[in-house]
Amino acid sequence: MHHRITPDTVxxxxxxxxxxxxxQCDLCPRFCKLHDQQRGLCFVRQNLHNQIVMTSYxxxxxxxxxxxxxxxxxxxxxxxxxxxxxxxxxxLACKFCxxxxxxxxxxxxxxxxxxxxxxxxxxxxxxxxxxxxYTYNDPVIFHEYALDTAxxxxxxxxxxxxxxxxxxxxxxxxxxxxxxxxANIDLKAFTERFYHKxxxxxxxxxxxxxxxxKHETSVWLELTTLIIPGENDSDAELDEMSRWVVDNLGADxxxxxxxxxxxxxxxxxxxxxxxxxxxxxxxxxxxxxxxxYVGNVHEKSADSTYCHACGALLIGRDWYQLSxxxxxxxxxxxxxxxxxxxxxxxxxxxxxxxxxxVSM
Length: 360
Known about the structure:
Layout: E1 4-6, E2 9-11, E3 15-17, E4 23-25, E5 33-34, E6 45-47, E7 52-54, E8 59-60, E9 62-67, E10 81-86, H1 100-103, E11 113-114, H2 117-126, E12 131-134, H3 143-155, E13 159-164, H4 170-177, E14 182-186, H5 192-199, H6 204-216, E15 220-227, H7 235-248, E16 255-259, H8 274-286, E17 292-295, H9 300-303, E18 305-306, E19 313-318, E20 321-325, E21 356-358
């Protein structure tokens, strides 16, 4: 457990003092340089008495049980229940943020629920959840709380799932993913222009995180790209992105293309047409990606999993509801015997599409 300063505040490791009296936070590539009492862009990390502390430890913006497919993870124990929670704040500044009321919150009263790591693990176990997801806002910024929760979960045999934009420095990244079992990383676009202009970040650190997770850890990895009309939906960009994924991460990393709806500071853009998502999926498949999906639209054929070798339907999905199941107990196609990449049990989970709010 991390060292408590107050009930909500813990000391952190990733910082160093500067010659001018400020402290630099070394958790993410923003490297916020903070005077005493000043908070970083994420708002939850603060220079307090010449050290960086995390100010939202043990406090959550809410808890729910979801289908794992909602994270979205389609190849990590399909049909299972995942206990989801987040805190407040974020280390990116995406103009299209769909969770802006949580991630952009400057109000700590957004954090209504208090829960210690052990309580989260215990509740997840009692509710029959296979895993716990660190989500709603980016777990990079609640690093210490997520790690203590993951340790408590591991002790009870519960998996940990990170839903993140991957904007993190190498040293904390290694500590964090050493405790994760699966991750869905937002690959928000494939141009530096988009990252700089629309998220306030950079593309290179995210690509570095993706390669690290895939090649240096045993974490199961899936990717999500929110397709925004006129910003990251050109054929050329989607072609370059999916080729990069196959060349650098391999054909077995699933890609999810989800629909944008106007929100936060991007209300002038139209919602993403389903045709754009299907086009993105086709480009990825044509470039050799084995598993590509669409999200936030109702399209069963593009939500389902097919055998990359023979094309047989392996897992039918209608929204978050599973239907057909044609994998054997080893996770192989019943038609041709080819292995489907991922983590599967003999039978799919039976949680279904429901979302259940949980009060702690």
